[in-house]
Description:
The structure is a homodimer. Chain A is 29% helix and 27% strand. Chain A has helices spanning 54-66, 101-107, 129-146, 160-171, 177-186, 212-218; strands at 10-20, 25-31, 41-42, 44-47, 72-79, 90-98, 114-118, 157-159, 190-197, 205-210. Chain A is an alpha+beta fold. The radius of gyration of chain A is 19 Å and the shape is elongated. Chain A folds into 2 domains: 10-126, Alpha-Beta Complex (Nucleoside Triphosphate Pyrophosphohydrolase); 146-225, Winged helix-like DNA-binding domain superfamily/Winged helix DNA-binding domain (Arc Repressor Mutant, subunit A, Orthogonal Bundle). Chain A contains 6 helices and 10 strands. In chain A, strands 1, 2, 3, 4, 5, 6 and 7 form a 7-stranded mixed β-sheet that branches. The longest helix of chain A is centred in the middle third of the chain and has 18 residues, at 129-146. The mean pLDDT of chain A is 92. Chain A binds a DNA duplex through helix 5.
Amino acid sequence: MKYSGQTRFLIAVDCIVFGFDGEKFKVLLIQRGFAPERKKWSLMGGFIQPEESLEIAANRVLKQLTGLEGVYLEQLQVFGDPHRDPVERTLAVAYFALIDIQQYEKQINHEYNAEWFLLDEMPQLIFDHEQMVEAAKKRLRYKAALHPVLFELLPEKFTIPQLKNLYEGLYGTTFDKRNFSRKVLSTGLLVKQKDKDKGNSRKGAFYYKLDKQKYSENFQAFLKFIPNPDKFL
Amino acid sequence: MKYSGQTRFLIAVDCIVFGFDGEKFKVLLIQRGFAPERKKWSLMGGFIQPEESLEIAANRVLKQLTGLEGVYLEQLQVFGDPHRDPVERTLAVAYFALIDIQQYEKQINHEYNAEWFLLDEMPQLIFDHEQMVEAAKKRLRYKAALHPVLFELLPEKFTIPQLKNLYEGLYGTTFDKRNFSRKVLSTGLLVKQKDKDKGNSRKGAFYYKLDKQKYSENFQAFLKFIPNPDKFL
DNA sequence: GCAAAAGTGTTGGAAGTACACCCATGG
DNA sequence: CCATGGGTGTACTTCCAACACTTTTGC
């Protein structure tokens, strides 16, 4: 039995994949291999299959692009403008992902011509993909102001100055290192390690690891990492 | 030209319509007029049409149900489980709406057997509609803890005790009236009127109106209406 | 004159911000 | 020994939460 007299549509899943290189935010893009817009840059996407849920489709697409599984993935919104894809009406469910750019480098699937772009130096994208990136950026800024989600972008061991860089990159500003450090440590989410990262200074900065337990317990909590979050949204 | 070899799907828009009767939260439901699940209660929904964007579809559905236009409407999320509709795979884009229940009463479209239910006394709903209501409730709690969105549920003139009731209803708790009143007045969003509502007390409570200008300017701002929001999410 | 809800003020504690100095190290 | 980034402590202010009494008026 079917519903009669109704139109059916293609559904795509498109993923905005964010990374952080220690300095700046990046987005992973691919060069589209098929018409239309062949050779233009695009988000990673794919059509959903008959027996596939959205989450599964998004994870599949992400795995194809990055080789990674179990990364942070969140539904952003649906883009449904009737003419967003000139070929045929397609609704796109946008997801955004946060991945550790270093792990990615080991696992990359070379079948795709994927490339990292600095978030503020992106090429033109196909269709409404730039809008999607814009929306994802906004959502991430919002979310990160309240929840410790940015840890998803860091490697297992990281330093406080790195973490500070990350937040500063996202909000395009600088934070006071004393207050910043006090604030993140006061969450109790970080476990100090014995070794240091000597890459960026003579003295070296202590590594920290995330307390995974507390992280998942406190993920929903409002943490106010950012002073005056209003300014940035 | 079309994309070949891909499956197409039905897309529905489903609306969770919230109202507040002065005491409790309510949801607007309809009795489904066609099979399957005829006579069971359901959210208001409809299939999207070939040339219709999602926002337009959601507004159309909402207008059919309530007769109202220009009400607060926000995309919630997509529900895409392959078997959520037993008849045929259908993806549902859920929207939630906040309406002034009093205005609604004047404009109701009687073509539909729509009925208000107390949020915590809902009948069984079809498909995954209960999940949708659950998600909408959660989203609303989250949003209202930070942004002045609940005013959308009130009539043009309202009193502070009413507003307090509204927040208490949503979070299932009570707030200190002195702190509550100070907090909402300090936003500068309210304009005191000369007349009082004598319905609930001998003394009467002053009416307030929303300063629409400031409301739209400050909508994105973090207002922290709720003490310890963590507890409620 | 009393019951019932509305309205208002103060105070102590916590959290947040601004700000300046010492530390460790490699060259 | 000095330049560079890492790390820490304090005083001030602001915000928040807790709490109790007075006001109005219909009966």
